[in-house]
Request: fold
Amino acid sequence: MINGIKPLDRSLRWGMVGGGGTSQIGYIHRSAALRDNTFTLLAGAFDIDAERGRTFGASLGVAGDRCYPDYQTLFQQEAERVDGIEAVSIATPNNTHFAICKAALEAGLHVVCEKPLCFTTAEAKELAALSEAKSKIIGVTYGYSGHQLIQQARSMIAEGLLGEIRIVNMSFSHGFHNEAVELANPSTRWRVDPKFVGPSYVLGDLATHPLFLAETMLPELKIKRLMCSRQSFVKTRAPLEDNAFVLMEYDNGAVGSLWCSAVNCGSMHGQKIRVIGSKASLEWWDEQPNQLRYEVQGEPVQILERGMGYLAPRALEEDRIGGGHPEGLFEAWSNLYRRFAVAMDASDRGDKALLENFWYPDVHAGVTGVQWVERCVESADAGATWVDFE
Ligand SMILES: NC(=O)c1ccc[n+]([C@@H]2O[C@H](COP(=O)([O-])OP(=O)(O)OC[C@H]3O[C@@H](n4cnc5c(N)ncnc54)[C@H](O)[C@@H]3O)[C@@H](O)[C@H]2O)c1
Reply:
């Protein structure tokens, strides 16, 4: 159980790019990073509008002279301070991730970057190479992968409780954008504009989440090839899709499917993953995150509850409040930020042994997500044909 115990004897000096006062995701980054005192927020370029960013930074308690007008000034001026930031989180629209991430690594900072990491596999691999050359961590915020029941599923699958893995069935399909809400909502507007999101909307914005849940639960499973069909039900969104279906074949003969949608009317989130083996299945749904369904063929269904002593050590390690109380998005993100801090510290100390055996959504998870989106778009635009993943 985490119980507020600090994983490090220090707190990393931390800044943010984006995540300003009007942003959707800025607060969850801050609440996750600050929860276990693993990070101290000292600086930022919080907003595309410099003045708004300064006012917002001040309202968070960041010193006025460390609320910068843009990320270039942030990185340059913080590098000149003896107490400058060591790590930065990037919570800006997708088109900016590559340049900001690259500049941060070049400035000697560890990075936590929003998904998708960037637009092309070539860019993603460039960031991975730079992070290695600079010995700096890139963590990617696939938030729910930090939930303890995802770790529980990983343990049960590794233990062989499901038998041979045959099918992975995933979805992230909500209904919030069933109409052209982007006309009135700036946070949605950039999401359906290729200038800001590159080649895809829901594939990059939504599907990469359950895709990484699958990668977390099934680290050995590798995608061999995939086929994607994508649609723009709100016509003005074309060529970007607001709905897509993806079929996958894995290298061990298993198959997968992923449905991502922003037009699934009535659905709140619909992020689900069901892993089916030759003996049993596991199913997890982000709208009921405290329960993991374990279904053994021929037996009554078992609902495994978060925080209970019968869970695997790997899951209990991430527990914050014991069984019975709900834990969800905030706690899962806090678990990720806690892990990012440990990885950053290990990297600073050159502790390769720790890093080799330490799980967190790292730059390679970011690369896979970008490559997967790229392949899906390639497949869909060729008329839903099979394309090799590598
Ligand atoms: N991991 C998740 O679960 C999750 C959830 C939502 C959003 N996201 C990702 O987070 C990122 C931001 O999404 P959002 O919904 O918060 O967007 P948003 O439009 O609501 O907010 C973006 C913020 O970034 C600021 N900004 C834009 N360009 C900037 C720049 N060049 N420098 C500094 N600040 C800048 C804006 O002023 C705003 O404060 C996206 O990449 C999105 O895909 C991830």
About this structure: The chain has a mean pLDDT of 97. Residues 329-348 form the longest helix (20 residues).
